[in-house]
Amino acid sequence: MSEPTVIPAEKTVEIRGERFRLFLDETAIQARVAEIGAEISHTYEGQVPILIGVLNGSFMFIADLMRAIDIPCEIDFWKLSSYGAEKVSSGRVHELKKIDADLEGRHIIIVEDIVDTGLSMQYILDRMQEHNPASIRVATLLHKHEATRVDVQLDYVGFRIPHLFVIGYGLDYGQQGRNLPEIYILDDA
Ligand code: IMP
Fold it and tell me: Is 116 a catalytic residue?
């Protein structure tokens, strides 16, 4: 006799009193990260790109992305701040940790967790040019395309998502939720 089909209740989490529902599971994220890693490996064949992770949100994505790249590559981190504990972008960008590596003549891949208004990425790209790199490309796991106010160059986009606040897989709400291996979206229902 076959087992009755059990439809699981929709998975939700509560962070700082707000309810978020499952949006992208681990399988979907890992499959997309593997595709981007393969594309980067192909594009940069014979070169040694340097991945610049924008902290804190990109730490999980950059760790998985680097493992999905099978050519020699390097890593460094840059820390910016713009959100604090708010759920709406303020558009303010502060530099909190500088890049240690010498980027002159290097092939840079900026690795971001999410592009929302695009203001942070615009600032990052402007500042990166000052290092005289050989090339700059951008990899972002998520893109809130409806919210983007400036025309920024995005070379590798994991997923285009609605204009709603998300957490998990490195992304936080008031510093919490980064440890979730999946991505959850604010349950506005
Ligand atoms: P932007 O400058 O508005 O594009 O914002 C980019 C930064 O805001 C990202 O690197 C994140 O740190 C943060 N951010 C934007 N949207 C979200 C979100 O939905 N959840 C968590 N952080 C976000």
Answer: yes
Predicted model pTM: 0.91
Residue of 13, 54, 60, 83 to mutate, ligand 1, most atoms within 8 A of C-beta: 83
Query: Rounded to an integer, what distance in angstroms lies between the CA atom of residue 23 and that of residue 69?
Result: 25
Cα distances (Å, whole numbers) of residue 174 to 10, 84, 111, 166, 178 = 24, 7, 21, 12, 10
The CB of 114 under 6 Å from ligand 1? The reply is yes
Does residue 136 fall inside a structural domain? yes
5 found inside a domain: no
CATH number of the structural domain spanning residue 61: 3.40.50.2020
Amino acid identity for residue 70 in this structure: D
Residues 95, 80: contact at Cβ < 8 Å?
Answer: yes
Q: Give the model confidence (pLDDT) of 7-17 as tens digits.
A: 555 899 999 99
Question: Closest residue (by CA) to atom 11 of ligand 1?
Answer: 114
Ramachandran category for residue 64: left, alpha or beta (phi over 0 → left; psi -120 to 50 → alpha): alpha
| pLDDT above 70: residue 82 | no
